[in-house]
What we know:
Blueprint: E1 5-10, H1 13-21, E2 30-33, E3 42-45, H2 47-50, H3 60-66, E4 71-73, H4 77-92, E5 97-102, E6 105-109, H5 111-114, H6 117-135, E7 139-144, H7 147-156, E8 162-165, H8 168-175, H9 188-196, H10 202-207, H11 209-216, H12 218-227, E9 245-256, H13 259-280, E10 286-293, E11 298-304, H14 311-322, E12 330-338, H15 350-354, H16 357-376, H17 384-387, H18 390-403
Parallel strand pairs: 2-4, 7-8
Antiparallel strand pairs: 1-6, 1-7, 2-3, 5-6, 9-12, 10-11, 10-12
Helix pairs in contact: 4-6, 11-12, 13-14
Amino acid sequence: MQQIIIHVDMDAFYAAVEVRDDPSLRGKPLIIGSLPHERGVVATCSYEARVFGVKSGMNIKEAYALCPDGVFRHPQFDKYRAVSAKLHEIWNTYASAAEYIALDEAYLDVTKQAVDFDGARKIAQTIKRRTKDELGLSCSVGVAYSKTAAKTASEEKKPDGYFEIRTPKEFVDLLSDRDVGVLYTVGAKTAEKLHLAGVNTVRDIRDKQEIVVRLLGKQGAWLVQLAGGIDDRPVQSWRPEDAKSISREVTFQEDVANFELVDDVLFLLSLCVEDRAKRVGLFGNGVSLKLTYADMKSITRSRLVSDSDDAVVIYREAHDLLGQVQRRPVRLCGVGIYNLSDQSRRQLSFDDYLEDTTRARQTQRDRRLAALQKRYGLDFAGHLEELYRGETLHKTIEYMRKHI
């Protein structure tokens, strides 16, 4: 049986949720991300802001230059996650498998439920209607024979659109004369390489296969298949253990030369990583440290450990890694765990039977928090749950930076 896949993509999701909850924002160029005087990028923006050239991933200061009269707001990720969970409930009703790409985007395998494209169209229209009626939001939906075609279809009539691509021929006919950047996996750098080689359109990829493969290797061979409408990938339901890593990072609003502060921030980030790991029931077999210096050069250091789901262990390893790097002004720092598994790899030693390891780590955690409280005048008692929220974490770290 031919696959029938739906791709659902919410329209300007973060911005749309904010407009829904604050109707005074309707019709205004709304930009979600950092504020104009801060460091950071655009997370998303309303379609009114896109008219000015603002787009996701753009430096916030560039966005402000393009749209100085825009409304700038910090993202509220807890709110967006809650809305996303409700979206998933709706989507899961109609799919035998759901592959979530982000909070606001998913591939749905409806082959069995829909039987044919007429049935898939009914499911898609039901998803659109329920999303509007139950959550007050709009989405764009594509129905197709493959994942790539379904994603292409959902983007064809945005916002609040619907489009079908039933066969590889329809896909090829639709895209042949479009720029190579329209294909899945072709980013700006890859497109530039292709353009320099005289490969400008999807048709060129098919006609100049040898050039594409020689230039891009395996990715080039994959693009040749896509340009011919070939994509047999199944929808794969995502599980927490499928993640490659769990990490948390923060960008300082001003470069930080004080590595005592950087070290303190690593501890808070370690707490956040621990919280995420325990909520999804995963353990790591490695700890990583990421730094971006003031000159925008980024470095990553990592090491394997026996078990890294505990903040004290994560911080201890990150602290040691920090001691091995060059000390110069830092723009960003991050901590992560990798080699994830839903089973702990830690082997109990004889010492584990002689002392309560969990209690010992809790004592170390309490002492570290007490030291931070004394150094910065912060009160973490009863407030750690709030710290795991992005905006609270950033505000706390900025307060620490200003009061060290």
